[in-house]
Amino acid sequence: MTEEISLRRVLPHVFRGSENELPVRDSQLWLQENMTFRRGTYYLIEAESGTGKSSLCSYIYGSRHDYDGKILFDGADARSFGIGRWCELRRRSLAYLPQEMGLFPELTVMENIEIKNRLTAHKSGNEIVSLLERLEIGEKAGEPAGRLSVGQQQRVAIIRALCQPFDFLLIDEPVSHLDSRNNQAVAELIDEEARRLGAGIIATSVGNKIKLPDYELLRL
Ligand SMILES: Nc1ncnc2c1ncn2[C@@H]1O[C@H](COP(=O)(O)OP(=O)(O)OP(=O)(O)O)[C@@H](O)[C@H]1O
After folding, report:
1. What is 4-219's CATH number?
2. Which of 1, 27, 70, 164 could form an SS bridge with 120, CB 3.0 to 4.6 Å?
């Protein structure tokens, strides 16, 4: 179980030499001595385009390492983790919805979700159907994901991200293409799942903010 993820003077390589300039200068995350995300707390990272929110998500998920400083999982330096530790973290502790979603366009909505859920056996088929219905995409279950609107694809990707246990849910602009009602429905769903697991949420936004009930707002 992961209780805390801490950033110690983290700075993307691309921002080296910009310590006294925007966006680094006013950031509440970059170059902070100790910024800690705690399990059970929700964080909304507000950022302008190009300030590095997708980079931050990739660093925490361990898919990129082009940063200075340290990222610690319960005090352990993420740079020391081998592939086995990352796999374990991603299987049990970290759920991630990247901005580009990563759906397979030629597979159906249900196949896209099952491809993940078969590995985790986290939800039953009936539970997946009821999640699709809850997010008003139940009738799309048999359609290729590539034929859905971007907002519909976001809802599929959110359900897929929830098909695993997690201590932290990392979601990069999860509602950028959703209207207010769907934003609310998605927020209620992930709040319910995170609360049940006692998990934290780290969400980013350049505009449309996910309507979580209670969160710490951070400026990147
Ligand atoms: N894979 C990568 N390797 C190295 N640098 C990258 C990579 N992806 C993005 N960058 C650089 O990092 C900086 C921040 O990009 P990033 O995609 O993290 O920003 P963002 O805040 O998510 O932007 P947006 O809201 O437009 O998606 C940019 O200058 C970009 O060129």
Report:
1. 3.40.50.300
2. 164
Which residue of 13, 14, 209 sits with most ligand 1 atoms within 8 Å of its CB, as the best mutation to test the pocket?
14
What is the C-alpha to C-alpha distance for residues 140 and 145, in angstroms, rounded to an integer? 8
Say whether 157 sits in a helix, a strand or coil. Answer: helix
pTM of the model: 0.93
Question: How far is residue 15's CA from residue 19's CA, in Å, rounded to a whole number?
Answer: 7
Greatest C-alpha distance within the chain: 53
Bridge-based pairing of strands 4-12 and 42-46 is unpaired
E strands of the chain, at which residues? 4-12, 35-38, 42-46, 67-73, 76-77, 94-97, 168-172, 200-205, 216-219
Minimum CA distance residue for ligand 1 atom 16 = 52
Average pLDDT over residues 127-141: 96
3-class DSSP state for residue 129? Answer: helix
Between the alpha carbon of residue 138 and those of residues 107, 132, 133, 142, 178, the distances in Å are 16, 5, 4, 9, 17
Q: Which of 191, 192, 186, 166 is nearest to 174 (CA)?
A: 186
Closest ligand 1 atom to Cα of 51: 21
Q: How far apart are CA 205 and CA 4, in angstroms?
A: 22
Structure-model confidence comparison of residues 76 and 50, the more confident one: 76
**Residues 83-108: pLDDT tens digits?**
999 999 999 999 999 999 999 999 99
Q: Interface pTM (ipTM) of the complex?
A: 0.90
